[in-house]
Amino acid sequence: MPLKLLAPVALLLLTAGLAAAQDVVLRSFQPRQPLCRAGRPCLLLARVANNGAAATDLQATLLLPEGVRLTEGQAAVAAHLQPDEERDLAWEVIAAAPGAAEIRLQLAGAVTATAPLTIRFLPALPVRKLPYIPEPQPAATQFLIGAHHCPLWEADKPRMWDQVVSKHPERTPALGFYDQANPEVSDWETKWAVEHAVSFFVYCWYRSSQGGPVTTRFSSAIEQALFHARFEKHLKWTIMWENQSRGTAGVADERDLMENLLPYWISNYFRRDSYLKVDGKPVLFIYRPEFLVQDLGGVEQVRSACDKMRQACREAGFSGLTLLGEYRGLDPKHLELMKQLGLDYTFAYCWPVPNSPTPQQAIAAQMNYLRRTQELNILPQVATVSQAWSGWRDEGSIWKIPPEEFEGLLRQAKDFIATLPADQLGSRMLLLDNWNEWGEGHYLAPYREYGFGYLDAVRKVFSTAPEAHTDLLPEDIGLGPYDTAMRELLAREQEARKLCGRHVTKPGGDVPGLVAWWTFDEADDSPVALDYSGHGLGGMVTKATHAPGHVGQALVCEGGSVTVPPHPALSLAALTVECWVKTDVPGQSDKWIVNHIFSGGTNTGYRLGLSGGKPCFGVPVTSFSHHLTGSKPLPTGRWVHLAGTFDGQTIRVYMDGEACGAMDRPGPAKPNTLPLCLGSYEAGHRACFTGLLDEVKLWDRALTAEEISDRASAGPQ
Predict the structure, then answer these.
(1) Which strands, in side-by-side order, build the sheet including 42-50?
(2) I want to staple 420 with a disulfide (CB 3.0 to 4.6 A). Which of 194, 343, 425, 427 is the partner?
(3) CB neighbours (10 Å) of residue 493?
(4) How far apart are CA 614 and CA 565, in angstroms?
């Protein structure tokens, strides 16, 4: 049975707390299809796992609200789980009418818990088999409504979906975890956009190197999908130049801009009929216009370059070029700088609204930004309204405006742009944030939680078309799925996770207080690094190889790492982290060797790494606080024993058995439900340790100075 929506690393603990029983977990409870319709069977899948060393019995019961019933079978399902076994439990339900329904899964056995699942059933629609997506029927509008488009969803980068898969399955798009390079995906997006009064997309555009011929990253949504789609003519599009990565994404100098970058845009983008042009001028958004000051040598040089770009566009047959610069603030000095750079308009990609506001507070804050920007009267604006925000790991302020309230925000924005001077672009253009930024938490495209709710709000406010209309899904006409790459990845990770949970030991592993022991002595092609303490805390290997280690093999940490899935045993009130490392690279800083602190939990966990070339051990109380840096640099060219300890009062760091730093830190370490990464901050992150890592051990107490000295002198135990 396909496991389309199973979360590979997110564990919902069926306990009252982190210290309770850990053996039985519910890995996921989701519908198979991203969106369900009334009157049509909807398959629900629950994946349960036994992480314990003994077999256990479990009963799962589906609790259905009025108006939702099983198509067949019983609501209660019994399961006998062997150690390390995972199993899918399935029910098929059907709703009599459209609307949101809360379905609950009740588990009883070794533990008892209830997991809720809200499903929004769309209006009933008969299934037809069509050869292709029906031609779009644009909703008439007198406005230019644009939506920022996030092009990160490429088939070879499925990890971009982790935030949705592991933490926010309610964000699952109607297209599933799709491959954006598919032209059929582009056609669905075009159809949904124009039928809801969205006039154009603003694709984030990334240059991958500067100073020479143009190469790009994340361009498949444009060049592989849109350019080969049937419906390209129905929707305008433009780009936002993501120039924030210094040295790679900007320009080396004016010559690079005028001889490489601009000709590429003119030839490949601006000349296409579908590229957005207003009054005969291509429209170009720039994410960090202030970075051009350094790239081009000064403010006047940037202004001169902007004038030259406009002239080059006129020589290419256009009426000029309209330049918009991104800024999400109210500092008059910054707006003055943007004006001096020669930009035509300011716009915001999104609006920063602090303190996790209510929907009404988020609406008021955005309208305040728009009104105050206009009152400053420095640079004309094109208004943006944002639907939500979470950040990639639920960091900082988290908020969401439901569709009903979002419609109210749109009406306020419509009234606001009507007050702008008629000769300004902002009087007829509005930007929506965002079409599909699923990981960062802002999106308008149809998805599980609210279906077409946000797009219907846009249509209501900005289109003169009748409110009644039909929103098609791929399964309505026998098309899809579009998420093969992600499904294959989930299947592979499911198998790898089974291996991670194996309860294995080797001599020296069965020691009181030892929580986990990773030796990295598996075969070179092993997808996992096993835990030889017998506790089943193995991790999944990502782009890491092996080399001769201090004992046996070591993990080569040059961008590769091991990710241990979230588990309560990783959260410890007192602890020791120890390992052996070897590197030929001195002075590494902000590089992490063992990390259990991530965005969304920066005041929890612990981590061991390097700061300014010296060992660093942190056990935070507040966000990223209480990081102790040792007094001596890490030696190079030989194996070094590192250890960090915390006893509930003091953080200590040791190198080669000798103490090299201490810091007061009263109170237990704060628990979290995040993974543990070995060899890096997280898989694929630039803050990775460069060198070899071996014999990592995690203890549930602070080892004494004498114990650490003995271990460093005697080698791995």
Answers:
(1) 12-13, 24-31, 42-50, 86-95, 68-70
(2) 427
(3) 21
(4) 28
Question: Do 379 and 338 form a contact (C-beta atoms < 8 A)?
Answer: yes
Peptide bond into 672 cis (omega under 30): no
Backbone angles phi, psi at 417, to 5 degrees: -65, -20
Q: Helix 332-340 and helix 299-315: axis angle, to 10°?
A: 50
For residue range 16-30, list pLDDT tens digits in order: 222 233 578 888 899
- Beta-bridged to residue 25, according to DSSP, are 13, 49
The whole-angstrom separation of Cα 286 and Cα 309 is 13
- Coil, strand, or helix at residue 503? coil
Residue 592, both tokens: 């992490």
Give CA–CA dist 540/497, Å, rounded: 7
- Which residue type, as a one-letter code, is found at position 485? A
DSSP string, 75-131: SEEEEEE-TT-EEEEEEEEEESSSEEEEEEEEEEESS-EEEEEEEEEEPP------S
Q: What is the pTM of this model?
A: 0.80
643 vs 220, 418, 577, CA distance in Å? 45, 63, 6
Residues 6+ apart with CB under 8 A from 663: 626, 628, 650, 651, 652
Q: Read off the amino acid at residue 624.
A: F
pLDDT in tens, 107-144: 987 667 889 999 999 999 999 999 999 999 999 999 99
